[in-house]
Structures are given as C-alpha cells and as structure tokens.
Amino acid sequence: MVILFSSLLLPLLMLIDCNRCEKYKYIIEVLFIKEDKIIIFHINKKERIEKHKIKLNEIMDLEYKDPFFLSPYRPDTFFNKNIEKCRLLKIKLKSKKVISFGFFLEEEVRKIIKAIKESKINYEKVQEEIKEFQIK
Fold this sequence. Notes:
This protein is α+β, with helices and mostly antiparallel strands.
C-alpha cells in the first residue's frame, strides 16, 4: 500500500507498507521524502530503526526488479497473495551502492519512482535558484 501526502507548505511524505512475509508479521518499512533526502525506517512491534538516509543528489537511477529474486520464499506465506506480481525497488547511488527496498505491486513502485524523481528535480531547481540569487 502506498500513501502520498503533499501540500505546498510541507515536503512530500510517503508512507509505504512493503508487504513483508508473515515471518516478519509486524515489520513495516516507511519512506519519507523530505527536502533534500529520502529516509527509510524499519518499524517492528518494539522499535523504529532508521535504515537509510539518502541525499537526493546521490541518486543515480531508480528501477524495480522483477520477482525472480523471490524464489526462496513460498508465495503462500505472504500477505500479498499476488506476490509473483510484486517488485523490489532499487535505488542506485553515485557511490555504486544499490539499496533495495520493499515489495510493491508494479503500479505502486511506479508511483514511488515518479515521486522520488519529481522531488529530485524540484530540489535541483531550488538549488539552482539559490545559486543564481547568490551570484546577484
């Protein structure tokens, strides 16, 4: 499930339940897009752990991976019974590191990628405007 919140005054906030298997029944991953960074939290019954903090200008590419990586899992153990239709979001960084995140239906992962790309473009525009203003 993907929920997008947006307003002119607030940064984009994206909450994502990544449909982890029942083995990790209480795990939710939450992704926030805030100003110049993406923050990914891992939440279980007891705690919220910050897993990744990614600056938008570090992102080289975004894509999703097909489900062949799920072969060790039994589809009947997942909350999402259409797990064969799910995708893994991959964020490629300038440092050559790749961060893989969540299980999403294809239309959900497309929304996430679009939101991250738009946030990155908007951030870069603001940075350019700041530079131009400083030059004047």
